[in-house]
Amino acid sequence: MENPDFLPALSSKGKSVAITNAAASGDLTVHTTTAGKRFVVYHVWLQAEGATDITFKSGATALSGPLAFAVNAERGWISSGVPIIRGNAVGDNFVIAISAAVQVNGFALVGEIEA
């Protein structure tokens, strides 16, 4: 779903993306980036139903260290107009790595910028 009012100066397409991993560990692609563009993330909210570590990634490259979540922990990151995460390379997908096979839910506000 496109939103033309979603930070138009920074992103041509902005959307809210659901995050759910079906209680599996490993990499979860949150946003598949259009060829020739970089993803930008303005807001992330996550809730883990069990203890796990979560790492934000640009494709295969870690953008954060492992962030520890306790059982039923919730955590959010939000910007004030500037992206909080930006894709490392053109065409990289926005990925979160989940260390344990526990249910993780949430959402991200994601856009794309010209490379």
Distance between the termini: 22 Å
Helix segment tally = 0
Total DSSP E strands: 10
Proportion of residues in extended strands: over 45%
List the helices and strands in order: EEEEEEEEEE
Give the overall form. Answer: globular
Described by strand count, sense and barrel closure, the largest sheet is:
5 strands, antiparallel
Whole-number radius of gyration? 14 Å
Oligomer: single chain
Q: What are the low-pLDDT stretches, counting only 5+ consecutive residues below 50?
A: 1-6
Give the SSE map.
Blueprint: E1 14-20, E2 26-31, E3 37-48, E4 52-58, E5 61-62, E6 67-69, E7 73-78, E8 85-86, E9 94-98, E10 104-114
Antiparallel strand pairs: 1-10, 2-9, 3-7, 3-8, 3-10, 4-5, 4-6, 4-9
Structural account:
- The structure is a single chain.
- The chain is mostly beta strands and 115 residues long.
- The chain contains no helices and 10 strands.
- It is globular and about 40 Å long.
- The two termini are 22 Å apart.
- The model is unreliable at 1-6 (pLDDT under 50).
